[in-house]
Amino acid sequence: MFVPELPEIHNLARQMADELMGREFAGVRVRQPKCLNVDEGEFRAAICAATVQGITAHGKWLVMHLPGGRMLSNLGMGADVLVRPEAAGDGDAHVVFSFTDGGLLTLRFWWFGHVHWVGEGEPHAPTDSLGPDALSLSEEEFLRLLGNRRAGIKSFLVNQKNLAGIGNVYIQDILFAVGLHPERRIPDIDEETRRLLYREMRDTLRQSLSVGGLAYERDLYGSPGGFAEFCVGYREGEDCPGCGTEIEKMRAAGTASYICPACQV
Q1: Binning pLDDT at 50, 70 and 90, where does residue 1 land?
Q2: Among 217, 257, 191, residue whose Cα is nearest residue 10
């Protein structure tokens, strides 16, 4: 299962900013009220007649800045987030926003998606607990983040409270490129390898972002991303591109990991 991570969310945020900045909401229809964190009437009152002032992303969350607060969306295990003309209809979207100048923004969650309203100055536990965005750190800040932590490297990097935006998709080839086994303990990783890890993390995420994210995800216009080739990720039983050893699947940090047992130690 591929889940949207930092490149896909940041790409959506960039596209949404291009399409929605300055537009005013005319209404909202919620077909799945359980995806909200507040009463449907309160949510509608906060959104209707509000003008979009900004759109940003933090890790796996989309953040829309509105007068009086923020609307935050988490796509869970995946979602279709689309802009479309009113004439096209809203399909079976769970949340449908309309604008005074025409057009719709629709969200159809595959599993476990959320849309939250948070008033100005109010806390929001899911995002307040996030670590820094994975593309916001300098190399020195990344080294300080790892510090003397005792965790395994994969479990540390995919924990959103440590670092926001990396999940079980991109971590596979990031670790392979640096020769790290996903269960390698952080104290056993030398400084040179930590620096290589930072650069590979940054380069992999930026590369995917530059082509619109994963080919298995859709952008705001329904188009797939261009990132499709993995070195070891999801290639169980195939040959390692580095040494030819058969790629293995194992569990690490509670999820599937794909490794070359010869190259990753």
Answers
A1: low
A2: 217
Is residue 119 located within the same domain as residue 171?
no
Q: Is the same domain home to 107 and 208?
A: no
Q: Measuring CA to CA, how many Å separate 79 from each of 134, 184, 204, 234? A: 22, 33, 23, 21
Q: How many domains is the chain built from? A: 2
Q: How far apart are the C-alpha atoms of 150 and 146, rounded to whole Å? A: 9
Predicted confidence band at 247 (pLDDT cuts at 50, 70, 90)? very high
Which residues does 183 contact at the CB level (< 8 Å), separation at least 6? 152, 153, 154, 252
Asked if 150 and 244 sit in the same domain, the reply is: yes
- pLDDT class for 146, splitting at 50, 70, 90? very high
pTM for the predicted model, two decimal places: 0.94
Burial (0-12, 13-18, 19+ Cβ within 10 Å), 6: buried
Q: What is the pLDDT of residue 88?
A: 83
Structural domain harbouring 36:
6-126
Higher-confidence position of 111 and 179: 179
Segment 98-106 long-range contacts (CB within 8 Å, at least 24 positions apart): 98/25, 98/26, 98/27, 98/28, 98/29, 99/20, 99/23, 99/24, 99/25, 99/26, 100/23, 100/24, 100/25, 100/26, 101/23, 101/24, 105/16, 105/20, 105/81, 106/80, 106/81, 106/82
Residue 53, both tokens: 């002032």
pLDDT for res 90 = 84
Q: What is the mean pLDDT of the chain?
A: 96
